């Protein structure tokens, strides 16, 4: 008697990739950029033309550094041993924070580059406090930003050192605050499918870069849309009217730094153009912008989760304003 015949089952079809909201946002961004350059007549209304100009400028200005951060993050995932950073960083978070904060000086990019790298560091076992110190320091104390600040303020030689000191203080204080009060459940990194054993490192690099670029790119578009809308909505005459008040000028430029979302490589030239404001208020603008703006908050929300961003961003804003005021009081 022969056993029952069996038929070989066909292998399951690979799951279809779902269209994510970030995919739609990236496509929308590309469409707006294409229309802005190929058919500028479509944006004939002055307000719409200004809006599209700011949106395209924010996205194009930040995109190279976002790509840099994504490539660095993918390289960490694919080529750096999992225990490397655990061995390289001090085990105590209190000591790891200043090491990570100072290491931010070696990444010549803006906040868009630092976010995916910080997320990759957390995935690789680095203490979140240290990764967050790196995230805040990298866009604010790297040589490109400091040189740009010195060039933008040729008659104020203390502006670049003041920016360095205040920005590093923000990174260290926020890192230590997270080490003391932060909770692991507030961090929710997006799921990234692990590569099967034996997968070539080049394939791991490609998949990680593709995932992070689309994911972070969508949130960059959200930040760009917000910045462009608010940039057009805030009248310049209103800014000039509050520049004479010491308190209001600080608060207005701090909030404006959050809303405008200017890349840290270019924000010094924006601050230098605000000649009606005091040096102190402009230093606040330069310190707040790289550590908490609408673009960065959107990227942080996409990388670490909304619960994290809703807690981390307001605390960072307060610490940045206080650090800038303290340094300005010493320098000027």
Written overview of the protein:
It is found in: Cell membrane. It is a multi-pass membrane protein. InterPro entries: DUF318, UPF0718. The chain has 332 residues and is mostly helical. The protein has one domain. Helix content is 71%, strand content 0%. The chain contains 15 helices and no strands. The chain is globular and about 65 Å long. The termini are far apart. Mean pLDDT is 78; it is low at 1-20.
Key features?
disordered N terminus; UPF0718; Permease; DUF318; transmembrane helix; cell membrane; 332 residues; mainly alpha; globular
Order of helices and strands: HHHHHHHHHHHHHHH
What is the residue-averaged pLDDT? Answer: 78
Helix content: over 70%
Number of domains: 1
Uncertain stretches = 1-20
Shape: globular
Structural class, by secondary structure, is mainly alpha
The DSSP helix count reads 15
Protein name: Permease
Organism: Geodermatophilus nigrescens
InterPro entries: DUF318, UPF0718
Transmembrane segments: 24-43, 55-81, 93-117, 129-153, 160-179, 216-234, 241-262, 308-331
């Amino acid at each position: 008697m022969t056993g029952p015949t069996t038929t070989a089952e066909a292998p399951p079809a690979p799951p279809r990739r779902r269209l994510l909201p970030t995919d739609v946002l990236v496509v929308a961004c590309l469409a707006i950029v294409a229309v802005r350059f190929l058919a500028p007549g479509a944006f004939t209304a002055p307000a719409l033309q200004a809006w599209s100009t700011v949106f395209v400028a924010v996205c194009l200005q930040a995109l190279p550094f976002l790509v840099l951060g994504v490539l660095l993050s993918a390289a960490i995932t694919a080529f750096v041993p999992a225990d490397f950073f655990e061995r390289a960083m001090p085990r105590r978070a209190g000591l790891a924070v200043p090491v990570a904060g100072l290491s931010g000086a070696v990444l010549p990019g803006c906040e868009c580059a630092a976010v995916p790298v910080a997320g990759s560091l957390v995935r690789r076992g680095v203490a979140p406090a240290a990764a967050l110190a790196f995230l805040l320091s990298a866009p604010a104390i790297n040589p490109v930003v400091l040189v740009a600040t010195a060039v933008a303020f040729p008659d104020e030689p203390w502006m670049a050192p003041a920016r360095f000191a205040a920005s590093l203080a923000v990174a260290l204080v926020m890192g230590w605050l997270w080490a003391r009060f932060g909770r692991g459940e507030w961090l929710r990194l997006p799921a990234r499918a692990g590569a099967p054993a034996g997968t070539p490192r080049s394939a791991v690099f490609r998949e990680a870069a593709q995932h992070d670029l689309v994911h972070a790119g969508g949130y960059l578009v959200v930040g760009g849309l917000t910045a462009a809308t608010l940039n057009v909505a805030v009248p310049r005459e209103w800014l000039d009217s509050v520049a004479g008040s010491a308190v209001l000028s600080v608060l207005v430029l701090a909030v404006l730094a959050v809303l405008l979302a200017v890349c840290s490589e270019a924000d010094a030239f924006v601050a230098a153009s605000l000649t009606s404001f005091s040096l102190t208020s402009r230093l606040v603008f330069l310190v707040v912008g790289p550590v908490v703006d609408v673009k960065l908050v959107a990227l942080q929300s996409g990388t670490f989760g909304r619960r994290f961003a809703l807690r981390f961003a307001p605390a960072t804003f307060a610490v940045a304003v206080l650090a800038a005021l303290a340094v300005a009081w010493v320098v000027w």
